[in-house]
């Protein structure tokens, strides 16, 4: 089949789909990945076709470390996304695989192209009574309240996509249909969604409809020949395992403050550190500190003593996969949800919210994560469970089972 995966967002929102695409390509499919221009390199490295999307969070208003509302960011992001997705789909495909960020508009594309689509989500965004919506806080509202809040969240998402969906349907020559009506039609048809996270971290909610499955992670593609840079390898071998500090695509513009905080934190905790520059542009210096750029978590995290991170879905899973305790520093969106999940699993101490982050608090959390063997033991148990899962294979099986597959 000609498969088009559509994933918009930051590096962490897109990178897992390079591994999924590479697996499907190895199964004999022709696979392309539509993603922001900034991800063209990793997509090409994975052997997939690349179709550019204009929507990159770094280029939209509001990516300033949290000073603008999340809804304003989302609206600006979505406004450019519809035409980008339509352009990416124009060369054609037999199947669309749609991420959380692209599904609400991708449904219309699949309808116009008269081809099947499958959701491949990194977050459990569908309403459930078992936990509150992944964006909006971690306090349970009870089964009824959680599910009602999830339904409200879906209506908010529909409103955010309403204008873009209306323009997209007009461009595609489709009859007028509201975004809410389109979502309800997808639900009635039991539209399949495969969730790319481990049931060890988030078990499948019992009140989900049949088409919603939790299949295990798909991981960013890394070449079998990849090796860490000599400078990094030398640093790792020069002393005891360090602690990783990274905020990924968060905190743009706060690099100087976070760099100074990282140095003080590592000194107070009495540990060596590997600091990832990320979008914030961290540049921490010291005898026992190394600043690095983008490196594969699969190669770096197993060499760490603990992983301090913003708790994006992919980074949280990568720390578990490596069997290392986390110190969660959630910033926004779904990050508090994943932070709470890691703590509930026992693989991390209580989260240190970014809004109240200090060197003293972070150093104390690092000492707990490194010195209390319970966190490492729980993380190692989770790593064994994740190693037994194969999320990519489950997606390939779903593709193979499609009616009328060529």
What's the helix and strand layout?
Layout: E1 2-6, H1 11-26, E2 30-36, H2 40-45, E3 49-53, H3 70-89, E4 95-98, H4 103-113, E5 117-121, H5 142-172, H6 179-188, E6 193-195, E7 212-214, H7 230-237, E8 243-246, H8 255-269, E9 273-276, E10 289-292, H9 297-300, E11 306-309, H10 313-321, E12 326-328, H11 335-345, H12 359-371, H13 373-387, H14 391-400
Parallel strand pairs: 1-2, 1-4, 2-3, 4-5, 5-6, 6-7, 8-9, 8-11, 9-10, 11-12
Give a verbal description of the structure.
The chain has 14 helices and twelve strands. It has helices at 11-26, 40-45, 70-89, 103-113, 142-172, 179-188, 230-237, 255-269, 297-300, 313-321, 335-345, 359-371, 373-387, 391-400, and strands at 2-6, 30-36, 49-53, 95-98, 117-121, 193-195, 212-214, 243-246, 273-276, 289-292, 306-309, 326-328. A seven-stranded parallel beta sheet has the order 3-2-1-4-5-6-7, sandwiched between helices. A five-stranded parallel beta sheet has the order 10-9-8-11-12, with helices on both faces. Residues 58-67 have low confidence and may be disordered. With 406 residues, it is α/β, with parallel strands linked by helices. Helix 3 crosses helix 5, helix 4 (103-113) crosses helix 5 and helix 8 crosses helix 12 (359-371).
What characteristics describe this protein?
five-stranded parallel sheet; seven-stranded parallel sheet; 406 residues; alpha/beta; 12 strands
């Amino acid at each position: 089949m000609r498969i088009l995966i559509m994933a918009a967002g930051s590096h962490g929102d897109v990178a897992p789909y390079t591994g999924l695409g590479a697996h499907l390509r190895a199964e004999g499919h022709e696979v392309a990945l539509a993603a922001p221009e900034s991800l063209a390199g990793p997509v090409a490295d994975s052997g997939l076709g690349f179709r550019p999307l204009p929507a990159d969070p770094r280029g939209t208003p509001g990516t300033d470390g949290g000073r603008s509302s999340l809804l304003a960011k989302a609206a600006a992001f979505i406004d450019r996304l519809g035409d980008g997705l339509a352009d990416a789909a124009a060369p054609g495909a037999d199947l669309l695989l749609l991420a959380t960020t692209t599904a609400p508009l991708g449904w219309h594309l699949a309808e116009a192209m008269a081809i099947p689509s499958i959701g491949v989500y990194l977050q459990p965004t569908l309403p459930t009574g078992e936990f509150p919506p992944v964006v909006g806080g971690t306090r349970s509202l009870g089964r009824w309240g959680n599910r009602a809040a999830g339904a409200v969240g879906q209506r908010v998402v529909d409103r955010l996509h309403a204008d873009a969906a209306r323009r997209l349907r007009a461009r595609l020559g489709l009859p007028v249909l509201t975004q809410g009506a389109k979502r309800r039609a997808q639900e009635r048809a039991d539209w399949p969604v495969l969730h790319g996270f481990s049931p060890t971290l988030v078990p499948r909610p019992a009140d989900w409809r049949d088409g919603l499955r939790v299949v295990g992670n798909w991981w960013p593609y890394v070449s079998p020949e990849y090796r860490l840079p000599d400078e990094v390898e030398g640093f790792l071998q020069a002393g005891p395992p360090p602690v990783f500090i990274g905020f990924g695509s968060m905190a743009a513009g706060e690099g100087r403050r976070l760099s100074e905080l990282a140095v003080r934190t590592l000194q107070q905790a009495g540990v060596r550190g590997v600091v990832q520059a990320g979008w914030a542009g961290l540049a921490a210096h010291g005898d026992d500190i190394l600043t690095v750029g983008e490196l594969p978590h699969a190669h770096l995290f197993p060499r760490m003593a603990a992983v301090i991170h913003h708790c994006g879905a992919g980074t949280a899973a990568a720390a578990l996969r490596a069997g290392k305790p986390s110190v969660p520093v959630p910033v926004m969106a779904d990050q508090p949800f994943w932070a709470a999940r890691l703590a509930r699993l026992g693989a991390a101490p209580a989260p240190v919210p970014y809004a109240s982050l200090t060197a003293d608090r972070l150093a104390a959390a690092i000492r707990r994560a490194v010195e209390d063997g319970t966190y490492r033991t729980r993380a190692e148990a989770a790593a064994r469970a994740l190693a037994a899962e194969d999320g990519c294979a489950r997606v390939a099986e779903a593709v193979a089972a499609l009616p009328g597959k060529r």
